[in-house]
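Aim 2, interim progress. The first record below pairs a target sequence with its structure tokens.
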Amino acid sequence: MRETEMLLPKTFDLDGPFPQLSRRLRLGVVGGGRISVMQATAARLTDRWEVVAGAFSSDPARARAAAAAWHLPEDRCYASFDDMAQAEAARPDGVDAVMITTPNHVHFAAARAFLDAGIDVLCDKPLTNEVSEAETLVELTTQTSCVFGVSYVMSCFPMIREARAIVAAGGIGSINQIHVEFMQDWMTPKEVADAPHVQWRLDPKKSGRTSCVGDIGTHAAHLSSFVTNLAQTDLRAEFHVCGAPKPLEDTVFAWTRHNGTVPGTLMATRLAPGNRGGLRLRVFGSEGGLEWDLEDCERLRFNRFGEPDRIISRGQGHGVSARTERLVRTARGFPEGIIEAWANLYTEFAMAVAARRDGRDVDTGWLDLPRVAEGATGVRFINACVRSNDAGGAWVSLGR
């Protein structure tokens, strides 16, 4: 039997800082690559999680080696995520949730195994390679009442949350256009495609029908809707291989529509020398505009037409909204970055997991954690891009 202690305080301010829990939550790791280390580091930073188990490799010898590397007992490191789901669900001290950080083609089976076991999930994007699989995960999440988060971590930067709040308050008026781009340069050298962590990203059997679109394009698409609260409904896309020959695209150019009428652009590439984390969002409305750049993530540019330009900076005591303030750890002048954004994701995930385990319905309007439905939307975005490109760049609907 699992312990029945309450994790959240009996009362707390839904508009104030996130509360401390009565204990750290137990986190399992599925997948042993570089991103799992980054996410585990961020989860520990929240002081709300401890890593207690993992399925790091299907090779038993490598799984045992991973146990030592992660400082875990051998009996908590598994060579199969199915075995891990069943064993951990049966333990009184089993994992409260898992992170899934495998290549794309494993996401569906791994997530389903843990949902079936009643264990909450935070999965990397893209959620799956097939729309039908994504929709199945949405249905399973509803049936099991589990928490299912998706790692659209770019939405967890404080200044992105501030941009979302400004838009919701009508700060830029009625939105009339949305532009987002994600420019990187790490695939510029030809030999980079031979690296093990890159090979699967270019393998259609593992990455699906796309590489750049499914990886960084989905971040861009999610961010445009997250900040504006406008659903992306239609697009036309063109795929390109701008560098050395590859089986999948390294660049995408797309025109988009939100809510059927609001136009926009979306561009993503890994062949833009001089750009490392070149995610940029620009939203313009009838009264003003917002601009944010990942490589200058501490600042949000907020303009109202006819008024002096404003630069809002992240940091405690700087007048940002209460919902933004609770995701800020340091004062102005002491930078935060991607690890802290991941930590914000894991903080909100912890709150959602704790609320479910306590049987409390406190989540409505409290958390902005990206959920499984947003993950499914991302898969429909990928599918629409593929269909549009196959049709010579024709307009297509994301549909369902």
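The second target in this work package is listed in the same format:
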Amino acid sequence: MDKTDISDIEEKFARLRGIVARLAAPDGCPWDRKQTPFSLKKYVLEEAYELIDAIDNKRPGAVAEEIGDLLFMLLLLAHIYEKSGRFSLGQILDGIAEKMIRRHPHVYGDLHVSSPEELNANWQAIKAREAKEKGDRYSCLGHLPRSMPALQRAFRLGERASRVGFDWSRAEDVWEKVAEEEGELREAMAGGNREAVAWEIGDLLFSIANLSRLLDINPEEALQDSANRFVDRFYAMEKQIHQTGKELGNSSLEEMDRAWSAVKAREDK
């Protein structure tokens, strides 16, 4: 990237920052003015999920648009904190730049790594040193947000535990644990204790997440694919029943099952 390109990007970035400041000004947009870090949380998540959808749908134009929407939310969030005197956008940019340089001594320093395992070990050592310097507790599990999707968090926790050898050797070995959790769930259901049932469902899902990981499949993505297939099939079933002059609400379960089976049969052709 030459100096002209950098200058152009800096100008565009400054323009967007100006738009954010204008919208959040006392005489700006009422919606932007009333936002707080807490009210913006749901919008940041929403924009991130819309970006993921655009990536999954392989639509570059939509990806570019959604990156812009997410960037706007992040700049608005940074602006709110900056106006309150907590930190500045410059501090954010300096902080992440310094962190990336510090965590990549094999790129910006003279460290040599010869394998992904060695690279990961060095990454963890750097993070441990950073935590110690801040006075924070360091764990091999890291600090995965409790607010992230639970199935994805279970997958990542198992992934991180496996780095220190706390793991099954093969995917086949997890089946015993899955069967154990299934048996405990059945017992809890028979006992009628709702709290115990919820506990065992969680344990079963956690085991399935680890089975997926050992099969090199992301369970969150697999479940999303299943949910998407269900939605597509349900729409098709609904359409087929509508073509008979009926609505789902006054159709029997047998009629819906026949339409569902017909939709699946068409997929197999």
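The chain is about 75% helix and 0% strand. This observation will shape the mutagenesis plan for the next reporting period.
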